[in-house]
Amino acid sequence: MRSLDPLDLYEIDDLLSDEERMIRDAVARFVDEKALPLIPKCFDEARFPAELIPEIADLGLLGSSLEGYGCAGLNATSYGLICQELERGDSGLRSFVSVQSSLCMYPIHAFGSEEQKERWLPEMAAGRVIGCFGLTEPHGGSDPSNMKTRARKDGDDWILNGAKMWITNGNIADIAIVWAQTDDGVQGFIVEKDFDGYEAREIHAKMSLRASITSELYFDNVRVPDANRLPNVKGLKGPLSCLNQARYGITWGPIGAATACLKEALDYCGERELFGRPVSATQSAQVKLADMARRITSAKLLSWRLGRLKDEGKLHPSQVSLAKWNNVRMALDIARECRDLLGGSGITLEYSAIRHALNLESVITYEGTETVHQLVIGRELTGHNAF
Fold first, then answer.
1. Which CATH class is domain 131-228?
2. I want to staple 83 with a disulfide (CB 3.0 to 4.6 A). Which of 112, 249, 367, 379 is the partner?
3. pLDDT tens for residues 167-199?
4. Strand ranges, E, within 90-143
5. CATH of the domain spanning 237-382, picked from 1.20.140.10, 3.40.50.11810, 1.10.1740.10, 1.10.150.20
6. CB pairs under 8 A, 24+ apart, for 22-25?
7. Of 85, 137, 264, 367, which one is the catalytic site residue?
8. Taking a C-beta distance cutoff of 8 angstroms, is the pair 126, 64 a contact?
9. Quick check: is 367 catalytic?
10. Residue range 292-314: mean pLDDT, rounded
11. For position 213, what pLDDT does the model report?
12. Cα–Cα–Cα angle for 5, 325, 178, nearest 5°?
């Protein structure tokens, strides 16, 4: 009887194409060789490793699922595997790529003019222009319809006023994709960093996503040319479709974090001896480790199926909600359990479990809290909106 890979008990690797495995392995090498040597120190110092951006771009990871304009045009599963390996390194790395790709490049690609696509997308794919996504507001949180940021028409321009909160990449962004109420519904605008009245302020003293930049954005009578308005979408379907793209990647990312924690716990429990035997030889440790493997296997199958549905054009937003809810909760629980198995060592940055656990406290909250996704599924099951 053959031995199974402890990190792939259902041999899900066999469901991937040769190209998908090649892409995953290339990103895995980058994470192992370039990112992981930096990440613990960056987390400790609350610093985003911006020096990795050129290589991330050279690997074709920015806008990787988009067609044309210097983008790689990869399928959905390949994009998911990219997110998985990046988050195996750190949630901050995956968040950077998710925001650039799904929240900034995607709306320009889907809703922008040809001039906007030609101007911004090749530079963003090359990592020479960084974007951020302005939807969440200080008072709004999970209710984007309660948007206070407004844009009013003034000749050939728009005057933008308001504030956005919890914005990844804000202080390194060259452009912000900002959603604002107008007299004609919610519309999206490309706000350039040198526009008068636009300010980004970094949020400090975070205990989560410390190797990521999080900002507040302020707009004080910012004059935005109509040429910077996304012309091909109106209403909340614009920003919500962007979030659906990003949430899809988030279903994959925590699998990487959970796998990193499980591997670390397996190695540690196999090496550490207590009461005359390895920790891994005890029933209590084996039950915990087996439960982790079960939950990771289920999450992998959910995301793999989700990727195939996305490529077939059959993806439903509620399916993304189910996977985001399940997979992030899975990873957070595993990171916490692995931290416990590591004992006192688990609270140090010598090991990754505490870092992943802290990061996943943000991941389970952003782009739809766990409760929001539970209610999405509840609505799907019952037909009643309980929001």
1. mainly beta
2. 249
3. 999 999 999 999 999 999 999 999 999 999 999
4. 131-134
5. 1.20.140.10
6. 23/74, 23/78, 23/81, 23/82, 24/78, 24/81, 24/82, 24/84, 24/85
7. 367
8. no
9. yes
10. 98
11. 98
12. 120
